[in-house]
Amino acid sequence: MPVDWQGVLVALAGAWAVQALLTYRQIAHYRTLLRRIYASRSRGFLGSGRIRHGWRGGAVVILLADEHGTIVDAWVLRGVSVFARFQREEVWNGRHARELAAVDSSDPSVPLVHRAAAEAAQQIAARMAAG
Question: What InterPro entries does UniProt report for this protein, alphabetically (predicted)?
Fold first, then answer.
């Protein structure tokens, strides 16, 4: 039974186009979220952390801290699927950025989301130290 290569190539091109469209929508969602965050804050610091992990995907965490370094809002993207969306996370609210930054983000025994939050908190702590 001969293989219809033209049909296979058309199917692959269609799948690629759908993936590109969904990636665009995910990036647009990320940009919209960042615009909303920037518009809602009057003062404070923003940090973003990302951890990649092969087949398990990864995690992206956006933390918003007040001028004293206390986390006031957080958003988490779990996995790297084009269907993943940021979800508001309240587990870090009220904690200080320095406390979260103390987590070793290179330790593989620490959950991906917590490692990404540590990276975001390290950015906040560095911006606070810079003045």
Answer: Glucitol_operon_activator
Contact by Cβ (8 Å): 69, 128: yes
For residue 97, pLDDT over 90 is answered with: yes
- For residue 49, give its domain range: 5-130
> For 23, which DSSP code?
H
Locate the DSSP E strands across the chain: 45-53, 57-65, 71-78, 87-88
What pLDDT is attached to residue 121?
Answer: 95
Report pLDDT digits (tens) over 10-41: 999 999 999 899 889 888 988 898 888 878 77
Rounded Cα distance, 1 and 23, in Å: 36
SS3 for 61-76, per residue?
A: EEEEECCCCEEEEEEE
Which CATH number does the domain housing residue 42 bear? 3.90.1010
User: pTM for this structure?
Assistant: 0.80
d(CA 15, CA 9): 10
In angstroms, the CA 52 to CA 80 distance is 8
Number of domains in the chain: 1
